[in-house]
Specification:
This protein has 111 residues and is mainly alpha-helical. The protein has four helices and four strands; from the N terminus they run αααβββαβ. It has a two-stranded antiparallel ribbon. The two termini are 30 Å apart.
Length: 111
Amino acid sequence: MVPDLMAKNPHWRKIQGESGATEFENVVIRRNGAVAALRSALVGRHGPRYMGDDQEGRVVYASPLVDIAANMELLNETADMCEQILTLTRWHIRLLSKSTFLPRSPNSLNS
């Protein structure tokens, strides 16, 4: 199923066109300023956008195409993003990973 999903991903198609890459497992796609972009999406002019009662019980899931802790840099970024979500919303977070880096988390990501 993952190859089918990746075939439709415009970022993957661009990488294939530029580099000729054929195995998506060997490619990492990153967004610059991901934590700042998330915070910007969660906070409006008048403060947090998603603190209302209607937000209770919403869940953020990690994409099946994303390794949330492939290395320490990604682990720290994931932890920072989780902290933003938990501080600025009433959402729950569900992350799945087989990463061996999780026990090294800078905060409670591994609990």
